[in-house]
Queue: 4 jobs
Job 1
Amino acid sequence: MDSYKVGRLILSLRQEKHMTQKELADRMNISDKTISKWERGLGCPDVSLLSELSQVLGVHIEKILRGELDSSEQNKGNMKAIRFYVCAGCDNVMTSTGASSLSCCGRIIEPLIPQAENEEHRIAVEEDEDDMFIALQHEMRRDHYITFAAYISYDRLQLVKLYPEQNAEARFSKTHGGTLYIYCNRHGLWKREIMRRRAKGGRPK
């Protein structure tokens, strides 16, 4: 364990949370001199303190031990990197804009891998001036249904949670192009690209 790297990471994470050394120390019932020692690379946290430190700073213990975050965690996410997660235990839907480690109901959840729509999961799209309406000819039984529909554009996520015995349909505010996603609880995540509308002369609006 590199005490200098660990200390620099603790310093960076503490500052991200706008905490002073004393505030962090008080949260952990230790002295602020101990925090200062860590951050100057003069020592590393005791094993008995790592669990509480990871909770206060909001990172996994192994990241503290390595003294660095993955590059995807250091950078701000963007909508092009959107990932969807669905908990098999409670059907909870989660998203991230970058590589993340998520868990729910005691399980680690892997990101869903989208597939291009097929005949069984064909997304019908109708557009008017302001909205986009989507519908699927898909059964909505309790054991086989569409869990959610989402529309991703360059700067926003619109998501509609669906439930058994509803119609498999949703309405979204229209934007200039994006990607539609639907998730079938049996067959996974499906997507359809929505092209930007073209104005007269052939150029996208």
Job 2
Amino acid sequence: MPVTPEEKLQTHLMLELEPVVEKELNRHLSMAKEWFPHQYVPWSLGRDYDGPLDGEAWSIEQSKVSHEARESLIVNLLTEDNLPGYHRAIASVFGRDGAWGTWVNRWTAEENRHGIVIRDYLTVTRAVDPVALERARMHHMEVGYEATHGTEFLHGAAYVSFQELATRVAHRNTGKASGDPVCEQMLARVAADENLHMIFYRNLLGAALEIAPNETMRAITEVVKQFQMPGHSIDGFLRKSVTIANAGIYDLRLHHDDVLVPVLRKWGVFDRTDLNGDGDKAREELSEFLEQLDAAATKFETRREERRARKAAREG
């Protein structure tokens, strides 16, 4: 079969970017701090559950976190649980050879700690129903994970640049909303990993912009317009997302202001002079979409404040 222009570009990019991957991998390893999940879990609060050990069954009164924080913790953990699917997706895009493969395995190992520590915390503190959590995990992993961008390198790299930052924001704000200093400390540690992952991917795609500006700009625009969090297949995700957004843990304003805009600014997409043709068109589409998203975020904030004011008036 003849090689398509897209395949030819992808091969060219993978070869050209390998030194960048090696450089960013070394930077990451120099900055990443070793940490141990067991040190962030208050084990002294633990006790046996019902079942073979004949302990105490879980009940909602045992949870010390708010309903909103509980929903966000569940979404965050179930998202982390699908790591096997993410590993397969990223390995399919980046490959398993050289610095690319080393990064994929390192990233996977670091991400695995996140699921370990969050689950241990939730189980020990009885923050969520462990039976419902396990059933949700089984369902979510049986659904699996399929990246919307398939094995296309530019789309994949653009997606994780935004997604890692979105996850960092979600973890940090969940910790703050929990009302538990232990939870906040734990999720701040997880968020620090996510930030380093974002920097790796952001710098990688920034280098791709220099090599293939028009094609990379098109990929960025398509990813931003179609963006979904990796946990979107979680059962009840829409309902949980509304709860999380209403609590200000992760909403359209945060997505626009704290995720999309900082990454796009770092890439300098609106200041570039090397775009033409479809690259220029993609940038115009991106600008229009950001304006629409900004307006939608403002509308949501206004309605949320109105709802909060009505609730305060009723309770007052």
Job 3
Amino acid sequence: MIGKIYGTGSYVPQRVLDNDDLSKIVDTSDEWIRERTGIGKRHIAGDETTSFMAGEAALKAVEQSGIDPEQIELILVATSSSEVIFPCAACEVQKKVGAVHAVGYDLNSACTGFVLAFNTAQAYISAGIYRTVLVVGAESMSNMLDWTDRSTCILFGDGAGAVLLCAEEGTPAVMAAHSDGKKGAALTCLSRHSKEWEKSDKDSYIHMNGQEVFKFAVRKVPEIIKEVLAQTELTLDQIDYFILHQANRRIIEAVAKRLKTDISRFPMNLEEYANTSAATVPILLDEMNRKGELERGQKLMLSGFGAGLTWAACLFEW
């Protein structure tokens, strides 16, 4: 069995902060940010919460699918920035979409979160445990930023994306995932409940060693894509799209170069949304789906990478 995507949805806040706006806050410029990241603007939550955005994206996915919400059996929300510790964001989504028979829980793996949640859903479906699963990635990254830190505040935005998976007969999705906790210090954000945070409230904001994260992503993403392909009889040329976490244009271009694959098969939307962490992949999937760029039978490779350090990939048929 495989989980086929029956519906997609996304939500981004109305408030937009472009690079020129940021240049009034920190020492930067539109040219500097675009050259190093490919980002032009980001959407920033106002009154919207993480669970609210997750619910809005989920509603759109369910509506497009035509599936009765009462048929949904499992809800997974990937987030590291929920406004609620409990009830979990997944239960808030359940309430909003009316999935009264579903069980829900959250996964926290930062920027890799959605791909890991998607893999989890595929594993449940392949095992015959659930047949209809709602997977959401939602983040309010702006709440975790030090807006005086140029190295991080230019990179992130807020938003949510969702997919609704339904079981069908077919070849199961092919997956791989890894973590390296020894290198976790490259990208951190302490809880405000941590005793370590008491030493400095600055520790509750995102801290990143940009060079280390870049080198990690450029090395590990091609490796895991090849690892997934090695489990099949497919070649790189047979993959229609490589849908990567939208962290940095340079990272995506470097991955394409290492794989010796044309950059046109690596869609990007980070110019509009920046890095929305666990939401980047489902937002991109929803955009491509609603533009009619995805067709049944196409082979898609998802890959996420980020704090942990953690990285994952999934190959499946649209």
Job 4
Amino acid sequence: MLAWESYVEAQALRAQGWTISAIARHLGVTRVTVRRYLSGEHTPGQRARSVPDPFEGFAEYCRLRLGADPHLWATTLFDEVTALGYAGSYPSFTRALRARELRPACEPCRSGKTSQRAVIAHPPGAETQWDYLELTDPPAHWGFAGSAFVLLGVLAHSSRWRGWITESLDQPHLIEGLDQVVGRLGGVTRRWRFDRMSTVCHPGSGRLTVSFGPVAVHYRVGIDICPPRHAWRKGAVEKSAHVIAQRWWRTLADDTTLAGAQAGLDRICARLDGRRRADADGGKTTVGALAEAEPLRAAPAPLPAVLSVERTVSEQALVAFRGNRYSIPPGHTGEIVTVRHQLGTPALDIATARGVALAHHLRSPDGAGALVRLDEHVDAMTRVVLAEFTDRAPCPRKHRRPPTADALAEADRIRHAQAGPASGEQVVIDFDAYASGTRPLRGRAHTGETSGQDGRESS
């Protein structure tokens, strides 16, 4: 095999009029090798196979199968050629498919996918793009059952980003997040764009759900659903999710409270409003300046959706919710209770898993660290604690307590049972007790006589 350096050298020497023999002596190879490379019969850098290619006899079959079905799995095709007698390994098989370029491109898929990315112009105030960002491994003291989520809203014209941290993807939390993010963005655009999330539309058809229709009517916005299998139709919000995950979530400290995390997210979004942009005339401006100039409608009052989350009752009969703790009557320590809050109202309710009401509280601001306790709950807890209090002297812990006589006797019995009969000890068998405990043969009473082989009794 000639490397590319030797091949280039041979080409240059041949152009200078050198003979094949002189080039072969100069490169230290045979004349046949030089002649084959100069004629194009061999390719430089590729060693010729010393044994026949085991795939060669199956190449035409693979070409026909993949030509009829470009999406046929290589594993399925490998099973077919193995049944036909192919003896090579699966990695060698797939390498041969790629080297011969036997899999054709699917034209319908090629028309729907492209590596090109075009920036779609959005008029001011026209569209807000929405998406969720999943945040794995949130701080344990947040009390979330699994991952945390950030509902992101982006003004498509100016690229202003705002987000709201939530613990659930259900529709009430989505409605709360829409209200929070719209307020942070500064208003409502004419249309909202979502991907096929089940709380907004039916993922298969893309039609709005019956429960989300009143939400769109409440905000007086048109809804656009992204088509399936078309990536980057919400490029602005997808880019915001990438930036926020890398620049904010990765560096969040473990001791950060939920309210502190939300404040940090608001700060970084406001700081990113300083990104530079070009205005319609080509002049330099910023994201914040473009966003302030967008004609946005004022956000309406929150839709009265009811949030419902589960919490575990502490030993002090307290239930944590959004950075505050609320009291319930004693006797429910360790139980799972449900906290309900209707958006737009100042109160929250706590009930058992079966729906029995436990407490009704005025809600404190999120993250305030407030301890909200009703007087009746405090009195009930005090009565329970005092009822369990006693002035009886505790059991002495440092007095001597040797084993009792019964315990010593039981220990001797155990040692004797484990040791077994001692050597030289005679074992006596009581045959009368054995005979009385056995079952009489053939149902007859035991007489001490045995029967002979012919059925006659013998003594």
